[in-house]
Predict the structure of Glucose/arabinose dehydrogenase, beta-propeller fold.
Amino acid sequence: MKNLRYFLILSSALFAFSCNNDDTPENGGGTVTDPVETNPANTQYKPAFSGQTRIKGMTTDTEFKAEIITSALTSPWGVKALPDGRLLVTQKTTGTLRIVTAAGVVSAPITGLPAVNPANQGGLLGLCLDPDFASNRMIYWVFSEAVTGGNISSVAKGRLSNDEKTIENATVIYRSSPANPNDLHYGGRILFDQTGNLIVSTGERSVLQTRPLAQSLTASLGKVIRITKDGQAAPGNPAFAGANALPEIYTYGHRNPQGLAMHPVTKEIWQSEHGPRGGDEINRLKAGANYGWPTITYGIEYSGQPIGDAIQQKEGMEQPVYYWDPVISPSGMTFYTGNRVPEWENNLFIGSLSVTHIARLVIKDNKVVGEERLLAGEGQRFRDITQGDDGALYAVTDQGRLYKIDKK
């Protein structure tokens, strides 16, 4: 009898140990399901580590609702919450801003921004508010600009006027280089890091001529850059070897990064990146690191041909935290810091374009341990998502909608 009791105690301890060391998130995360991706991959490439792709599914146990606040926006691309709870939205094709109230009232277009080139993937893109916006009313944004030689990704700043009708003293503070005539892969997200400097993503502009520049330290294409409010290289940026390396480069080897978010606990910058046919990525950015494009990738050309040497790993190049094959086309993203839906705490929410949903990634110890697809039945291309001061999530879609997602 005594041996049986010891056996039961030991068994219980082993069971507890195994439960505490599996991939279940510390906050529960929700109910575990089969992986959400069921379609065949485009390649036979193998992940570098377990859980790097097609992780187990997760469903939210807390009842939540999604409501359309307005459908009156024109190609919204970026959304940020103002201190009073209203939402500030960029409109890609018109090059104007709009303010939307919680009741769905949309302001007249806010003008005064530099002209954008709205062709194809260009236009007025991501935005962020100055940390001192409540007192200085400063806004920063990314846009595609037509210059001599083609188009570039540019960063500008300006003050939202007191009457909220215009942007005062709009000034371009940074221009990527070199210019190229095509109108693809601008990147376009922007945020402030914990030091008060700007983090900006730029694309490698898609074409074969510019693609290799993602690996060049003398070009600002295919990069995440870190600059001051005046557009200068930020203090403390990584120092790269080689002549003429650009001092504003923070990380390199990116394809078309359309999402940036700061982890609420670690304050590290996370990024979403469009792959080609397969190979969409979520990356945790490390200063000075090379994220591999186009030398390594989990995707292939749209034609089906391999990219480069068809390798997925190489010494000195970072692996994505997570990747998708087939793609979901990840765009804007945010970490959830509210308490309305407990199992969402510190989860990463990413707008998906080609598979028309919001991806929820449950993260533990810098690894993705669960994935959920939200609002998949809406048939919308979710371009950006942010958290409001009320703890709810707000998402904009290419089709002009603004959604509020919150506990029932």
The CA atoms of residues 222 and 254 lie 5 Å apart. The chain is about 5% helix and 35% strand.
